[in-house]
Structure to design on (554 residues):
């Protein structure tokens, strides 16, 4: 008997015993419960939302939001009923243990919260939010904190401050949650965290909820994230469902005290903001005002200022309405015309969007270098919730000079983005953890960039080498270009006849550059034959690719 067989057999035996035992108790009338006494079963009733989400003195909805100095400060927000002036937080460098292990005198710092902000809800009570700003922290240091009123405390929770300069880190990106927040969304959030538990930031591209002032939906959204929100910084922007008749959700600013460093318009306060984090400039925009000339112009000028004077290696921009729409007849003309040219001119790396409840990823056609590589901005659209839209076959992309590399519908998704000094690795996965899409951005010290598809057997073979001429004479030079290599990968340059009759010969062995490009000036040797077609064949550890045919004329 194998261990597995034994395990299943024992489980089966236990089940039988339990059933027999139950039958014996039923026969003797001993089993307690309504049916044993002849009562009719009672149908369950929905538990009222007002009871599920009602606040208490115990802190909940604990949320980290970034400051403009994430290496030395941190905001934390929570909800609780608390006597006036009692809200506070305690913080210390993360110890090896707590409980019976008491921090030494002076290790714990207590910080008073700012003024409480009550939000009147549609469930008959007010939800009151409290915010503490921790300051004078040390960079790249793990801290433990708790929030409360001095008596009623949250659990101790850890976070780590940002490093002062570019250091590797990961962040997670979600498209719209919006619908099925209590049932379908939690598994996406939990799977994303399981795959990137070390993530330092979560980027939400708007429509976190469906009804902007629904206490029930905001409660469900916080429950979906759970403890994750208290230990990973949240960088969210507003979607159209964060507004009602042009008015921002009453919950937004109390929950998300984002930096007030936007264009300066009151309407854009804490919905348009920026944070520099470990070599990445994160920029949040509010595309809900694309029909308001004044507020769009203000955002556009502010955006250009941030892009033109940017000391960071990487730039990530997020907003709700896509530059290139995925579904229906949507067409965000002002977003595309005002912001799109700036993204291209200043070399933004990622543009992360929502709204269309489908998946799409692509770039400008003009930036394509090879079958698998481009050098431009990558635009992504995604959805994390359960409401889905039909695709429009990429018409809004192709009509505006862009190409849709990957698209999909009827799937919930999350994106994991890993940042290092010279690479960004992007992977999109389905709610069940399966791979959906991915690519790798490489950038050198001069800001030159390649965006490479994740390699497959299919995309690392075939005609991907380019040559500057397809007719030539012996002794003439042909410029050979190729992409998609690892930095400094060694590549053999070979020449062979297209008909395969002559033996292929190695011309040279060269290295790709630091972002995976290869360029070589190939002098056609004396042994090539007149009226014969040759192709350049490049072989390396990762690729076997060739060029169009080159006809030898003399």
């Amino acid at each position: 008997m194998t261990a597995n067989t034994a395990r299943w057999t024992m489980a089966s035996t236990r089940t039988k015993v339990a059933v027999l035992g139950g039958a014996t108790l039923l026969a003797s009338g001993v089993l307690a419960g309504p049916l044993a006494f002849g009562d009719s079963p009672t149908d369950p009733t929905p538990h009222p939302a007002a009871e599920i989400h009602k606040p208490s003195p115990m802190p909940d909805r604990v949320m980290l939001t970034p400051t403009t100095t994430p290496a030395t400060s941190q905001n934390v927000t929570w909800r609780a009923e608390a006597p006036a002036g009692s809200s506070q937080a305690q913080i210390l460098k993360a110890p090896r243990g707590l409980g019976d292990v008491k921090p030494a005198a002076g290790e714990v710092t207590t910080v008073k919260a700012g003024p409480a902000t009550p939000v009147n809800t549609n469930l008959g009570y007010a939800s009151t939010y409290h915010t503490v700003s921790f300051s004078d922290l040390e960079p790249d240091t793990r801290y433990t904190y708790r929030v409360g009123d001095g008596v009623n405390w949250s659990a101790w929770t850890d976070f780590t401050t940002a490093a002062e300069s570019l250091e590797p880190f990961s962040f997670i990106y979600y498209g719209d949650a919006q619908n099925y927040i209590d049932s379908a969304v939690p598994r996406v959030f939990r799977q994303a965290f399981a795959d990137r538990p070390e993530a330092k930031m979560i980027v939400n591209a708007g429509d976190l909820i469906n009804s902007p002032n629904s206490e029930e939906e905001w409660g469900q959204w916080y429950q979906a994230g759970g403890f994750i929100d208290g230990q990973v910084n949240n960088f969210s922007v507003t979607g159209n469902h964060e507004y009602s008749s042009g008015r921002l959700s009453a919950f937004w600013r109390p929950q998300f005290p984002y930096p007030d460093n936007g264009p300066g318009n009151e309407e854009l306060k804490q919905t348009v903001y920026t944070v520099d984090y470990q070599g990445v400039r994160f920029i949040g925009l509010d595309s809900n005002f694309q029909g308001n000339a004044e507020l769009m112009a203000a955002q556009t000028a502010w955006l250009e200022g941030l892009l033109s004077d940017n000391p960071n290696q990487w730039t990530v921009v997020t907003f709700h309405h896509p530059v290139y729409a995925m579904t229906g007849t949507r067409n965000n003309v002002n977003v595309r015309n005002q912001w799109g040219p700036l993204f291209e001119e200043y070399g933004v790396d990622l543009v992360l969007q929502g709204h269309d409840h489908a998946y799409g990823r692509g770039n400008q056609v003009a930036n394509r270098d090879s079958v698998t590589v481009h050098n431009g901005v990558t635009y992504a659209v995604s959805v994390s919730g359960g409401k889905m839209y039909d695709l429009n076959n990429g018409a809004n992309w192709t009509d505006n000079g862009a190409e849709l590399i990957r698209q999909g519908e009827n799937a919930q998704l999350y994106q994991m983005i890993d940042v290092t000094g010279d690479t960004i690795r992007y992977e999109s996965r389905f709610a069940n953890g399966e791979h959906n899409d991915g690519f790798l951005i490489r950038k050198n010290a001069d800001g030159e960039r390649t965006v490479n598809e994740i390699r497959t057997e299919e995309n690392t073979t075939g005609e991907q080498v380019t040559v500057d001429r397809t007719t030539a004479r012996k002794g003439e030079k042909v410029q050979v270009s190729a992409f998609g290599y690892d930095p400094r990968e060694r590549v053999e340059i070979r020449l062979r006849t297209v008909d395969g009759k002559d033996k292929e010969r190695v011309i040279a062995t060269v290295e790709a550059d630091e972002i995976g490009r290869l360029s070589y000036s190939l002098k056609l040797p004396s042994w090539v034959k007149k009226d014969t077609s040759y192709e350049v064949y490049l072989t390396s550890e990762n690729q076997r690719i060739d060029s169009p045919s080159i006809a030898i004329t003399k």
